């Protein structure tokens, strides 16, 4: 038995299939016995009203049935029950029951029994009132300063407060800015009503303000009395909570400070009567209910707080004093006094578990057994200590600050791309310029090494490539279970892609509940975007790749394209892109050179990349380890800058279209306001061709919007071509200077810092900033220049430049310094110390130009 568990004193299970909420429980001397002992009143959404008088069971006979005084089935659902003085001609306590469309007040009377069956209790209806609006909750109190009697206030689902003085309806008021009902409470110290609105703020309305407020909004209900000459209803004060409130309570203990308590979804708030916050407690759990009760310490408030972890906690202000475990989640909690025990905690669950418990502990009679004492082997302890210290040193050197977990331990992913094209093709565009568009099937196999409940699989490919399905919702996987997912990839645009690599991303939760992401890649075949063709004799762009091995038969390394090739010697091979230019590969018969030529500079990228990769695979299979490839020609920077200028011009056009659309939209709204003013005028004036101007402006806006949309499509295509050209330039630079894979990765990240353009940030400014950083750091002319650049902080805000001259100058300078022996590295920045005299040369925010 746990030490911190609520001690059961009495419990009962109420019905089967019934539902309960926080308003379905109250305690009080409802039968007016005069002893001061409380009874428990419970109402359910099924309309069942029960009254209990618990007592400790001294024998195994009886049980909850002996404690039940009354059980009545009412016709309507019970939303809330309260005990108070609701009859004007009597000082006795009565029971108020709130139904969705009815308010009923009952009298509970008991008759002493003369036989073994005990006392008999009866439920008598004193009065009831049929509501015109659906009720949500209610509160009661001495409204307006009355004494010895309680009035009722009911909040409807549409935001109306309905006031009842004893058995008569007095008036109703709509709350301003109402959307959804919140908790409602009455503060007798200030004679005001408190609620939390849909704006997530605590609002206070004085009873006097409600009584004299305007009744115009309630005239839609013919059965409600009308009042005139009122004022607009405004709250006395408000306080923004920032979250929805679950419950609201105003304790009225004699020795407690004036407080208003609000239970939020994540915080507990305490205010004084003027709306000033006294204290706030951030909760580390999801609360379900709370109840303030009397504290023995002056100026403090005790709280019972239930949460969704089946725990009942006791707070004194913001200090946790005790915590007790329950067997259910409480939705309502009260404190009651019974003959055998005072201060009993009464809690109710949503499915009808009623529990009377108390806080306390049970003594534990467990004693720790004695351990046999034995002499320690100091040599063995010292050897174990050295071993542990050695392990700690190794882990400290190799591990990061946060330990890395291998997602592959939970799930293994294998992707397989089919060697044949689909028949029939799954492409959305069946043919481009007379050439059929193929599709290829990709199969992804998943094997779970642990239990995975919820997992999702996402497929990402670069435009204009597309897949038949981008997202898969996977069923729960057991240990060792496998799942196979298939989809088809195809070309979905009229221009070649910049990358044939696709990403497979799987998000799932580990058995411990930690979110994990696993990523895998697949490579689509070149035959997906091009077909074999006849070679072109004269082209505009040419690239020559040198090797140190004898010429290779091109048909042997491009077997899928050699079947219908015209050149039987294998010295020439041509690729016709489905939506691009023709690329021809020529192998020299006498030298060790290969020429790639085409009329499109960007379209050569995929062929050159594939050629270099297949050379590496071919010679590695032959066991040749000293294979080298190089590029000895001049870098085609001017051809590359043509793609850059075309992309930049489309970005400028997009900005112009945006500005023109903004101007036309402002003009369109101004004309609309003019026309609306004319139409609202009681003596309409001539339109003066405003309608014609409105139609013309609308037509211009639609034409500009169409042009902007078309320019956006061209901009996406231009960015893909810039990516292809940049990849080709990086490859040529690496072949030219023999860059290592790490240096090539740095260069590629510098020239391609973004994967797509955005209206706020584009490729030109990002690339210029990255290239400038390399020129000022690892590619600087001297250590002094590098130290000066490291001493500078900040820089200009990135934005669309005026032109591309600065960018082209920096890229040219980058290639020149790499060609003169500059090496790309990220470690040189940390190796250069900035002298104090150098730090004073550069002020923060300056830029090196």
Automatic annotation (TrEMBL):
Pfam families: PHTB1_N (PF14727), PTHB1_CtH (PF23339), PTHB1_GAE (PF14728), PTHB1_hp (PF23338), PTHB1_pf (PF23337)
One GO cellular component term: membrane
Domain (PTHB1 C-terminal helix bundle): residue spans on this chain: 739-818
InterPro entries in the cross-refs: PHTB1_GAE_dom, PHTB1_N_dom, PTHB1, PTHB1_CtH_dom, PTHB1_hp_dom, PTHB1_pf_dom
Start and end residues of each PTHB1 GAE domain: 436-522
PTHB1 platform domain span: 525-632
Protein's recorded name: Bardet-Biedl syndrome 9
Native source organism of the sequence: Oryzias melastigma
